[in-house]
Design a protein that fits this description.
Length: 667
């Protein structure tokens, strides 16, 4: 008999940020266990998650698996009779029933044994226990006098197969058919008749939306409708929405307000306070300016929500007062007066204090700014002040605001706008897809900050390993690549990076970045294998490679280029030039003549950074190159002829591969 299986664990409030992952992992674990026992397929099933429950509903689960034949491999057919008899006795078979089978190690005895299929009543408790132990839980706890351990205390267990309770004990809790509804609005106890009615009855009688995705969609809809009625909008809020969904079982959205006088505080502070501490959704006007309103996702749906709204408004006021206090107190001390105190903040025990780091960043910022023909004085000033806000009360309370508050405090101190903007922007990009610094001064400080971290930490062996990157060096390297490439900054990477391992690390991040921009692995490799010093030119090179690869001549020229490369590698030392007079065969003369005619145009296009034209011009060499390799023996017996041909191919190869190694495009 097959029926729907329900497993539900009733707990105290579960960690909200991991709730969804826990429910999905539980479904995967139980489904896998049932499939291994041949009680259900490995597909299908639905996970449920609320603050006080984890549940799975799996269709078509068998009460008993079919019997199966298992093969046991025994001793060699050359083994002593006593060993063979012992194997047969262990398998429960007479020796005459054993089969012989050839294996790479010789012929052996095999016993085919009938194995009784698993029974759901016997298997389910251990399957659930194993699935719970495998959940991604960093820390577990004990409760009561028992030995059971889980992320939160467990108070109930439902294991229903169709209409039948599967008896068993999990985490010291006996199974049954009773679930519980909403703590205040629903039935305290709901006795389920069957597994199939779980979601419907929990919603109707328990006032619980057990489906995480459905509950999230309901909250999203209510937020949008309420924001619209208030004449405001919501900015990016996906992470907070996931967290709030894990905090409520029956969501309702209400509007709260705060004193507009708090808007004198930078809105980033108020937003972070409301979101991080209170889980509220701030409202914004059409221009992105914070309104003195916020949306509350409550776990209660009531006809008159004034008490709920008033309570939340009273709670948020002290939080906003704290933000205003920090802001006002911080502005009493200028940023420049805080800088010397950075000597009390350790950056890394092998790399000194934050003041040491600021001094390095200042020197490097000025150097980069001068290379960019930007204002080096402004860049050095921004670098000097860049970490001062780490010592402010606001950043101490909300580390996420570092740089952001530095900008506000710099403007209050009367610093130039370019300096203030660079203080904020030097942390960018903070994450994938984040905005980049815009002004050259900001770019100089941002590059200096990231290069200092990379150079310093690589110098003391603190390189990322596997998925561990505690200092965010991969993010820093991608930031360097993005700023150089997307902002088109004409800087040579080799002028700032001397460590070969660090150089490899940055180019490896560049490979991933440019592939994410839509270029193929071969296209990217053809350019980056040349280790271009200027990453700002790589996008042009890649576009040229893509245009070249689309030409009908491309495949043949790429293959010929690969062949030339192999010849040159085999030849070792290659002459830097060649003598036209020593080219004797018509095909090599024709290729040299065509190359001499095209070379000025290619050089001119290369110098003007018109890489697409340069590569398309080289495509005209296809016919003479093909004829050359059809008729010309490069490794001639005459040493002068041979060396001259190798020198010619070296010159040709160098011209063809200034933009990209075309051999990487060969199929």
């Amino acid at each position: 008999m097959t029926a729907t299986l329900l497993v539900e664990l009733l707990t105290e409030e579960l960690p909200p940020k991991s709730l969804r992952a826990l429910s999905e992992a539980l479904l995967q674990g139980i489904t896998k266990g049932l499939a291994n026992a041949q009680l259900a397929s490995s597909a299908g099933g639905k996970a449920f998650a609320t603050p006080r429950r984890l549940a799975v509903l799996i269709p078509d689960v068998a009460s008993e698996a079919p019997d199966r034949i298992s093969e046991l491999t025994g001793p060699s057919t050359k083994a002593p009779e006593q060993a063979v008899a012992g194997f047969a006795r262990k398998a429960g078979l007479p020796i005459s029933s054993l089969e012989r089978r050839a294996t790479p190690k010789g012929e052996v005895y095999v016993a085919r044994v009938k194995v009784k299929g698993a029974v759901l009543e016997e298997a389910l408790p251990s399957i659930v226990e194993d699935a719970l132990k495998a959940l991604p839980i960093p820390k577990v706890m004990r409760w009561g006098s028992g030995e059971a351990q889980f992320v939160r205390p467990v108070h109930g267990l439902v294991m229903l197969h169709g209409e039948r309770v599967i008896p068993g004990t999990v985490l010291d809790i006996n199974s049954g058919r009773d679930t519980s509804g909403h703590r205040f609005m629903g039935s305290g106890k709901i006795s389920l008749k069957s597994a199939d009615e779980y979601e419907k009855r929990l919603s109707a009688e328990g006032m619980v939306m057990a489906d995480f995705a459905a509950r999230r969609a309901e909250i999203e809809q209510q937020l949008g409708e309420t924001a619209g009625r208030e004449g405001g909008g919501l900015d990016e809020h996906a992470d907070l929405l996931d967290e709030v969904t894990a905090l409520v079982e029956h969501p309702s959205v209400y509007t709260g307000k705060f004193d507009p006088a708090f808007l004198e505080v930078p809105q980033e502070c108020l937003i972070l306070t409301m979101r991080q501490n209170q889980k509220y959704f701030p409202l914004f006007d059409a221009g992105g300016k914070l309104q003195p309103k916020f949306l509350i996702v409550s776990n209660m749906r009531v006809a008159d929500p004034r008490h709920i709204i008033g309570g939340n408004e009273r709670v948020v006021r002290p939080r906003l007062e704290d933000a205003r206090f920090f802001y006002n107190q911080d502005r009493k001390i200028r940023l420049e007066a805080r800088v010397p105190d950075l000597t009390r903040v350790v950056y890394h025990n092998k790399l000194g204090t934050q003041l040491d780091r600021v001094q390095r960043i200042q020197l490097l910022s000025g150097r980069i700014a001068r290379a960019l023909q930007a204002d080096a004085i402004l860049a050095e000033r921004a670098a000097w002040l860049s970490k001062a806000d780490l010592l402010t009360g606001m950043v101490g309370e909300f580390p996420e605001l570092q740089g952001i508050m530095g900008r506000y405090y710099a403007l209050h101190d009367g610093e130039p706008c370019e300096v203030a903007d660079a203080i904020e922007a030097h942390y960018r990009p903070r994450f994938a897809g984040d905005r980049l610094p815009e002004h050259p001064v900001s770019c100089a400080v941002a590059l200096a900050d990231k290069l200092d971290a990379l150079i310093g930490l690589f110098s003391i062996g603190q390189t990322p390993t596997g998925d561990k990157d505690p200092f965010g060096l991969r993010r820093a390297a991608v930031g360097v690549v993005r700023i150089l490439a997307e902002r088109g900054l004409p800087l040579s990477l080799k002028d700032y990076v001397e460590d070969a391992a660090l150089e490899n690390f940055i180019y490896e991040r560049a490979r991933g970045y440019f592939q994410e921009q839509g270029y193929t692995a071969n296209e990217v490799e053809s350019v980056l294998s040349l280790r271009p010093e200027r990453l700002d030119l790589v996008p042009r090179q890649l576009e040229a490679v893509r245009a070249f690869a689309a030409l009908p001549e491309a495949e043949s020229l790429a293959a010929a280029n690969k062949r030339i490369g192999n010849i040159l590698k085999q030849a070792g030392n290659v002459r830097p030039d060649f003598d036209m007079a020593l080219l004797v065969l018509p095909e090599e003369k024709a290729l040299a003549t065509t190359f001499a005619r095209l070379r000025p145009d290619v050089d001119r296009a290369f110098r003007s950074l018109d890489y697409t034209t340069a590569l398309k011009t080289l495509a005209s060499l296809k016919a003479p190159v093909d004829a050359f390799f059809d008729k010309v023996m490069v490794m001639d017996k005459d040493a002068k002829v041979r060396d001259n041909r190798i020198g010619f191919l070296g010159t040709l190869h160098g011209t063809m591969n200034r933009i990209a190694d075309l051999s990487k495009l060969a199929k």
